[in-house]
Amino acid sequence: MTSSVLQYGHRGPWSRDAGEFPLARPTDFKPLRSEIETEIVTFTGAPVFMENGTFYVPNPGDKTYIGEPSPEIDEAWEEITAGRYFLITAEEATDAFGSASDLYWNDKVGGYMAGIDMFHALHCLNRLRQAFWPDYYPQSTHHNTYIHREHCIDHIRQMLMCHGDMTLIPTEWTGFLGRNYVNSDVPHTCRNFGKLRDWVVSRHNGSRTVPESDEKHHAKGHGLHREH
């Protein structure tokens, strides 16, 4: 993989190579902004078409996230989604949510529980993946299960539209289809996922962990703990 890293420097979170596009955005969690880097990553997963009319999706990486369910696939998803919620300080809560921050206090965990949206979206995507394999991942047929899936689909839709990746992807001729088919295995400019994941892990249960509090809040909305 070819990598070109753009650091979040002392002159501010801006990349000249990206046409003065901000590496950090106004809604990014402030303590995490110093970890933001960009790198060039070539995507994988475009179908490979065979002359006999069949095709398959290759997985050249060291982790497998798709395919017939297995403990290895579950472990790969767990590695990128576990520990996605963590405690934040009162100052961080006020800075992020303003006067509404008191609504997000959780007496059960002794603090303000929050998470980075990217990891919430990955969790949603994994739940949708599991829905393709109901025999391997038995899921409730309760109405709320379907509501959760609809939430996940619409949240991922909004996230993709929000981030607006403008990378150009080509189409190429595929003989047995009789038409062009998209080739999505092209370089993209990405935030360095590993650095962001490491920071979240350290905040969840590591050197950056915010200690629990014995304080009790009685704000409107108390008891509504909607982590998922």
TrEMBL record:
Top-level taxon: Eukaryota
Location of the protein in the cell: Membrane
Keywords per UniProt: Glycoprotein, Membrane, Transmembrane, Transmembrane helix, Virulence
Keyword Glycoprotein annotated: yes
Membrane topology designation: Single-pass membrane protein
Disordered as annotated region, ranges: 205-228
GO CC annotation, single: membrane
Pathway(s) served: Mycotoxin biosynthesis
InterPro entries documented for this protein: UstYa-like (IPR021765)
Feature: compositional bias, Basic residues: 218-228
GO biological process, one term: mycotoxin biosynthetic process
Family as reported in the entry's similarity comment: Belongs to the ustYa family.
PANTHER family given in the database record: CYCLOCHLOROTINE BIOSYNTHESIS PROTEIN O, YALI0B05434P
Protein name: Uncharacterized protein
